[in-house]
């Protein structure tokens, strides 16, 4: 049994696992004659394998109880998966680096602040969507195509939030 | 000079131009042991031409004044472009079907209700992002790659909202 306290998400800390989507911390340039700032290419979208293509989806997710108890992590070996909150929802992230097995000392837990989204790199182990406090709605950009694209790895993890 | 009153956006009315992203009106199925409903594959992501790939961006856009005055529409011949509001912003949409020229009687104006996003099909003529009332923040999924991917077509259009 692994117990982790979720840390506030930052792009640097999350870099081994993927990208953070947050207009407050990314560079931008003007378009539309200055009316709009474009925060360009914030995430690496990966669609590997046969007949692969990008999907845009919405996930409507029920909130988790705290402390968060997990019995497995999952990965998508053939594609990245981005989650962007549509109602400023905070959510818990539990990740481990790509690989066939998970080393307990490499598992990390983060919590977002409501403005942040994330993009899991293909193969990054991660918890299923774990929104806090209330029903969440997320725009999800991931991969469609042939072949298996979801593996699970058993792991007992409990995640707490700092008080 | 063309004057249009924006109609409430619906998926049926927008079908000639692209997709509407709205979890209230799309089908879904359970994942994550029932915790999450997945509204699957809501938009056709098109990335055409050399070195084409999918981009995830955030656009931060200043609000327009009403009535909205436009002097051109633009199109992206090599890729679709999806806009999803991150703070329930309403926005105005002005579109015309793909083609080398724009027929005035085919131009249409819509207004979203704050929960809706849209995906412009590759080649659909559309106004630049026109958010109402306040600064808007949108997740944008579009195309990177080689070659020109933006054309403009001059057109004088004024758009009003129903009172």
Automatic annotation (TrEMBL), chains A, B:
It catalyses: (S)-ureidoglycolate = urea + glyoxylate. GO terms for molecular function: lyase activity. InterPro entries: RmlC_Cupin_sf (IPR011051), UAH_cupin (IPR047233), Ureidogly_lyase (IPR007247), Ureidoglycolate_lyase_dom_sf (IPR024060). It holds the Pfam family Ureidogly_lyase. Keywords: Lyase, Purine metabolism. The keyword Lyase applies. PANTHER family: UREIDOGLYCOLATE HYDROLASE (PTHR21221), UREIDOGLYCOLATE LYASE (PTHR21221:SF1). Homodimer. NCBIfam families: PRK13395.1. This is Ureidoglycolate lyase. It comes from Vreelandella lutescens.
């Amino acid at each position: 049994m692994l117990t982790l306290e979720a840390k506030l998400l930052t792009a640097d800390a999350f870099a081994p696992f993927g990208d953070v989507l947050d207009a407050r911390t990314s560079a931008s340039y003007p378009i539309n004659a200055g009316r709009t700032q474009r925060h360009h290419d914030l995430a690496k979208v990966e669609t590997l394998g046969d007949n692969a293509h990008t999907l845009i989806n919405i996930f409507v997710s029920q909130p988790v109880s705290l402390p968060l108890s997990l019995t497995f992590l999952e990965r998508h070996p053939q594609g990245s998966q981005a989650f962007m909150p549509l109602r400023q929802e905070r959510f818990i992230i539990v990740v481990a680096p790509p690989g066939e097995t998970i080393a307990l000392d490499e598992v990390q837990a983060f919590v977002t602040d409501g403005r942040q989204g994330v993009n899991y790199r293909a193969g990054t182990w991660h918890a299923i969507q774990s929104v806090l406090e209330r029903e969440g709605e997320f725009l999800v950009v991931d991969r469609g195509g042939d072949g298996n694209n979801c593996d699970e790895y058993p792991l007992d993890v409990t995640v707490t939030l700092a008080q």
